[in-house]
Specification:
The complex is a heterodimer of chains A (804) and B (166).
Chain A (H helix, E strand, L loop, with lengths): L8 H12 L3 H7 L9 H16 L23 E3 L5 E5 L8 H13 L6 E5 L21 H23 L6 E4 L2 E4 L6 E3 H5 L40 H6 L14 E5 L8 E6 L1 H4 L4 E7 L2 E6 L2 H10 L1 E5 L12 H7 L4 E3 L8 E2 L2 H7 L2 E9 L2 E2 L7 E5 L5 E5 L4 H11 L7 E5 L11 H15 L3 E4 L2 H7 L2 E2 L2 E9 L5 E10 L14 H5 L23 E8 L20 H18 L4 H9 L10 H16 L15 E12 L2 E12 L5 E11 L6 H20 L29 E6 L24 H13 L10 H12 L1
Parallel strand pairs in A: 2-3, 7-19, 17-18, 22-23, 26-27
Antiparallel strand pairs in A: 1-2, 4-5, 5-6, 7-10, 8-11, 9-10, 12-23, 13-23, 14-21, 15-20, 16-17, 16-19, 21-22, 24-25, 25-26
Helix pairs in contact in A: 1-5, 4-5, 12-13, 16-20, 17-18, 19-20
Chain B lengths: L1 E7 L2 E7 L5 H8 L18 E4 L2 E4 L12 E3 L12 H8 L9 H14 L5 H8 L9 H27 L1
Parallel strand pairs in B: 1-5
Antiparallel strand pairs in B: 1-2, 3-4, 3-5
Helix pairs in contact in B: 2-5
Classes of the chains: A alpha+beta (804), B alpha+beta (166).
Chain lengths: 804, 166
């Protein structure tokens, strides 16, 4: 219990000075501790609130710099309380439209005990928000939400102690409700947060070896005491996105700004021989052709002029001596025959081989074998990559939608050999942030061009560049063998995967962003790449799980560059793993849900996150919500052209567990697959906002469907040939199912425990989706599609092959 | 360069531009309207959609010279007096957007659809929206929001009808 006598010395001194001060001015003068509203932080805050309210501070309000890192060990870096008892939270995150910004406000409001609607949130501005890395890995709530809750709880604690000192009563005798502190026994003793500290700084130091461990003295609330967390607040970013008032990175402008477009090599790996600048010099508004190594850009005063110049520029390129890659038709053959560059380990702590898989397979009553293939799939953002950089004042300010604003800042500083303090990134909303998109590349390009020209430069990729050259999720081949005993139990599983993941590029690396590669920069060694096997909790006595990495002939300056794509590798490996489990269930003539529950229930061992118990809970919840009837696949369909089926697939991602059921209709005459219904049972622990989570899951399920049904990067032996929405199809409105049921499960063995954590939810639900669709197609038709995507012609060919 | 007169959201703009410039760049960079957005430059995705003569038009492939004098409506022109259009309200009620980049195109395509067919069937909604792409895959909620908007528009019409009678 905190009492008056336990007030930290620093606060006690302040309170003494405060009580003795004859006026606010005297207080300000006399206090060495409270740096008040005229301080740099508060000033920045004021300009920011303008930006947040739609006034677009923009370059006009740009502080002169430099821009040192905000100190995460200071409470004032995270929270400012205003005189009107509203609060502004500053977090080192970005929100790609999954509602995390709203969730952060809910978490911090709850711990601070302040009404949600009296709060505001600033994200992703490297000069004024602490570096939590931006977005990625579905870590927003699970990892980065923790310090947010802890610092908000600490602010509440400090405010209570200030009030205790003011009233001369112990903290234990105070209550706090909606930002008002009151003495329990004397309602005349009441004070608002704004009256206590509005416009002033806390001056409280936090602890933590790194930002993820940031904490004060206060603890977070027990789940049972939470009031704002768990509520279905509407997202605060949606009205401005719908009424057009939100300021997007794509619209960033600055006085004197010029427009740039890239000119990419026409053939992967080509070397620039010469540029004929006279081919574009006559274009009105022409400013400059910039080239260094194989990087080429044209700059013009107006956007349409730059586009025209990029199309019109004559340049001579020399093709590489060897073909950069096989064609997409020959890719899987190439991958099977290639010499692996490396072998990747299975999940940490789990050996690659358990028991004696070969011996068990030899003794099995039935052995099933299957091979699966997943092509390269790209981000192909709806808005091609873009950024604007302003080199005013000898500093560099980059307006970007890059989900890792902080990494962009550090990477650009290293790339341009500038001190980090002279670079800042202003994150703003933009098209989908689902991994290592080309937003990284555009940010570096804008920065380079702005420094080169000495004036603000905006760059945007064209559609064909985005679709051909963005970072790709790697292609996979799989070979699986499984052994069943006479009772249909799975006794052995042999999983061998190959992924073309060599030279996997990271985020904002100054030697792997595309402009750096084209300029000839190289990391000392390419990243080895790799992938873990499917994440499931099946108990199988004998198993092997091996993943090999292979490389393509052209390692650098290639459009087939691999990087993280939403739920990196999860949809691919789970497609193979969960399709194969379904094949085994069919071979054993056992219902697919029952087969999985037997495998999950075959052991009593569980991990500290109770993933096995929670897996059983979600599989049962999905089956129950769907109305699953127990029968083996395939369904015995009639003779008509339209047949229906259902398929289940399950996985975990980190500590989040998901089971998806897809119901499909297959047209046997055309091969068209229509998903009619999807059920997702989802256990991500403590849910901060069930409404936003439901929307994110709905969209992520459809995203998985898009990868299942449509998406594939196609290429000949020189270049990517899928370059627009015709040659690179995506899910459309007509593909949307008629019904989606999202079931939020709390399968924790102790569901009411007060410390129930939240687990990541941004990416998990797409993971089992491809397999769920594949399993449903099999159930409907009796034909197994082992190659993604399930486009009409592929399904039709498989159906014809099966009936030939 | 030549002088072009454009009527956008009820205001007349006189511009000195290359008349072959696609309308999108004029709306964004000269008139300062950020509703229409660059998505493909090929007329394939719909992120740049505006309404001209009642039709949803892809401004990224529309030469500005060809629509001189026609009334152009962008997202900024569909809300009146600070009041959201019922379609926008439906989008908020259903919490449609994820990243939101394509949603202006979705809303404008919906408006052109509902202006012509105030009470579309599910199949008509699907057909009308099928060429407007969303890479966050918000289609399921877009469909629900359009059905909600149909009711909101009808309710608004009924309410304004009563006012006239009164």
């Amino acid at each position: 219990m905190t009492t008056f006598t336990n007030i930290p010395k620093q606060i006690k001194e302040v309170m003494e000075k405060l009580n003795g001060a004859s006026s606010r001015r005297d207080f300000l003068k006399g206090s060495g501790l409270f740096v008040v509203s005229f301080s740099a932080v508060a000033m920045t805050d004021a300009s920011l609130l303008g930006a947040a309210s739609g006034a677009q501070a923009g370059a006009a309000a740009q502080a002169a710099g430099p821009y040192p890192d905000p100190d995460f060990r200071k409470l004032d870096s995270w929270i400012i309380i205003h005189p009107d008892s509203t609060a502004t939270f500053y977090v080192g995150k970005t929100d790609g439209g999954q509602g995390t910004g709203t969730a952060f406000r809910q978490m911090m409001s709850d711990e601070l005990d302040i009404p949600f609607d009296k709060t505001d949130l600033i994200m992703g501005r490297t000069d004024i928000t602490v570096d939590q890395g931006g977005s990625g890995g579905s870590t927003a709530i699970e990892r980065d939400g923790k310090p947010m809750r802890l610092v908000a709880a600490e602010a509440r604690r400090v405010l209570l102690e200030l009030a205790a000192a003011r009233f001369g009563v112990p903290v234990s005798q105070l209550t706090v409700h909606d930002g008002v502190i009151m003495a329990k026994t004397d309602s005349s003793k009441s004070i608002t947060y704004g009256e206590l500290i509005g416009g002033k700084q806390f001056n409280v130091t936090l602890t933590g070896k790194d930002i993820n461990a940031t904490a004060g003295v206060a603890k977070i609330k027990a789940v049972q005491d939470l009031k704002v967390i768990g509520q279905p607040f509407q997202r605060s970013d949606i009205p401005p996105k719908v009424n057009g008032s939100v300021k997007w990175a794509v619209g960033a402008t600055a006085p004197g700004m010029v427009h740039a477009r890239n000119v990419k090599p026409p053939v992967a790996g080509a070397k620039l021989v010469s540029i004929d600048e006279s081919s574009v010099r006559g274009i009105p508004g022409f400013v400059k052709v910039v080239s260094k190594g194989n990087y080429v850009a044209v700059v013009c005063e107006r956007e349409e002029q730059a586009i025209k110049a990029s199309q019109q520029l004559k340049a001579e390129w020399q093709k590489p001596a060897t073909k950069p890659f096989p064609s997409s038709e020959d890719l899987f053959k190439y991958m099977r025959e290639a010499t692996p560059t490396s072998l990747t380990q299975s999940r940490a702590g789990i050996p690659d081989v358990i028991g004696d898989p070969d011996g068990a397979l030899a003794k099995a009553a039935k052995v099933v074998e299957a091979e699966y293939e997943v092509p390269f799939q790209g981000h192909t953002a709806i808005g091609p990559a873009h950024a604007m950089a302003d080199p005013s004042n000898g500093q560099l300010t980059i307006w970007s939608n890059d989900m890792k604003a902080y990494g962009l800042r550090t990477g650009v500083a290293a790339f341009l050999n500038m001190p980090r303090d002279q670079v800042r990134v202003m994150w703003q909303d933009g098209p989908q942030l689902y991994g290592r998109t080309a937003a990284d590349d555009a940010g570096f390009e804008a920065a380079f061009l702005a420094k080169d020209l000495g004036r603000p430069v905006r760059v945007q990729w064209m559609r064909h560049e985005e679709t051909a050259w963005d970072a790709k999720g790697p292609a996979f081949t799989f070979k699986l063998r499984g052994g069943l005993d006479a009772q249909g139990n799975l006794v052995a599983l042999d999983y061998r995967a190959r992924t073309v993941d060599y030279n996997h590029i990271g985020y904002n690396e100054p030697d792997t962003v595309l402009i750096a590669q084209l300029m000839g920069r190289r990391p000392s060694t390419p990243a080895s790449g790799g992938s873990t096997p499917p994440d499931e909790m099946y108990s199988i006595p004998h198993r092997r799980q091996v993943t090999e990495v292979v490389g393509l002939p052209l390692v650098y300056e290639t459009p087939l560059r691999v990087g993280n794509l939403r739920d990196p590798n999860g949809p691919q490996t789970t497609f193979a793993g969960e399709s194969f489990i379904d094949e085994l269930a069919a071979a054993a003539k056992i219902d697919p849900v029952e087969f999985r529950l037997r495998l999950l229930g075959a052991s009593n061992d569980d991990d500290s996150g109770f993933r096995r118990a929670r897996s059983i809970a979600v599989v049962k919840a999905a089956a129950s919500a769907y109305g699953w009837d127990n029968r083996p696949s395939p369904k015995r369909s009639g003779a008509g052209n339209i047949v229906t089926g259902r398929g289940i697939s399950y996985a975990y991602r980190g500590l989040t567990v998901i089971a998806n059921i897809a119901e499909v209709e297959v047209n046997r005459e055309t091969g068209h697959v229509q998903v009619k219904r999807v059920v997702c049972a989802h256990d991500c622990g403590l849910v901060v906002n069930p409404l936003n989570l439901q929307r994110t899951i709905e969209c992520n399920l459809l995203y998985g469907m898009s990868r299942a049904l449509h998406e594939e990067v196609q290429f000949d032996t020189e270049k990517v040939t899928s370059v627009d929405w015709i040659s690179h199809p995506t899910l459309r409105h007509a593909d949307a199912p008629e019904k989606i049921d999202v079931v939020l499960v709390n399968g924790d063995p102790n569901p009411n425990r007060p410390d129930l954590p939240s687990y990541g939810a941004g990416e998990a639900s797409c993971r089992p989706m491809i397999a769920a669709v594949a399993n449903a197609i099999y159930d409907a038709t009796g034909v197994r599609i082992r190659r993604v995507p399930f486009r009409d012609e592929r399904v039709l060919a498989a159906l014809k092959g099966a009936h030939a | 360069m030549s002088k072009i007169i454009l009527k956008v959201n009820g205001r007349t703009h006189s511009l000195d531009i290359d008349p072959s410039t696609p309308l999108l760049y004029i709306l964004r960079n000269d008139i300062g309207l950020e509703g229409p957005r660059f998505g493909c430059g090929l007329g394939q995705c719909g992120a740049c959609t505006v309404i001209i003569k009642g039709n949803a038009v892809r401004s990224c492939i529309t030469p500005t010279a060809t629509i001189q004098g026609a009334e152009i409506t962008t997202l900024e022109g569909i809300s009146a007096g600070g009041k959201l259009h019922p379609i926008q309200q439906a989008w908020i009620d259903e919490q449609v957007p994820q990243c939101g980049y394509c949603q202006i195109g979705q809303i404008m395509t919906t408006k052109a659809l509902l202006d012509k067919k105030p009470n579309p069937t599910d199949a008509e909604i699907t057909q009308g929206m099928n060429a407007t792409l969303c890479r966050c895959m918000t289609y399921y909620r877009i469909h629900a929001a359009i059905k909600r908007a149909v009711k909101l528009v009808a309710a608004g019409r009924a309410a304004s009808g009563k006012e006239v009678v009164a």
